[in-house]
Write a structure and sequence with these properties.
Layout: H1 5-14, H2 20-25, H3 34-43, H4 46-52, H5 55-72, H6 77-100
Helix pairs in contact: 1-3, 3-4, 5-6
Length: 101
């Protein structure tokens, strides 16, 4: 059986987890759209990915900087993690509030 990138995307689409928060409370949870956003990003649909879960790009930037910092070690890891987590939390909160209001 031959695997391709499209097979991986199809496999992910068929195995998306349901949102129990949305099922029981009838509102989007803070991470609603994350799975679909990843799948759209893998398909190359950047704008659709952003619309589904804007925080995904903050996470990508954070992990890219984390990787580069570990490789080249220019920034104090403790400060970097604190600032990065604060940045992601802020973006996450603003995006969620924008979605529910």
């Amino acid at each position: 059986m031959q695997f391709s990138f499209l097979n991986i995307i199809t496999w992910l689409e068929q195995r998306e987890l349901p949102c129990l928060f949305k099922k029981y409370f009838h509102i989007d949870c803070p991470s609603c759209g994350f799975q679909r956003s990843i799948i759209e990003l893998l398909k190359g649909n950047i704008s659709k990915s952003f619309l589904l879960f804007p925080t995904i790009f903050a996470l990508i930037i954070f992990f890219l900087f984390l990787f580069l910092n570990n490789k080249y070690g220019r920034v104090n890891p403790k400060n970097f993690l604190s600032i990065g987590i604060f940045f992601i939390f802020t973006v996450f909160t603003v995006c969620y509030l924008n979605k529910i209001l």
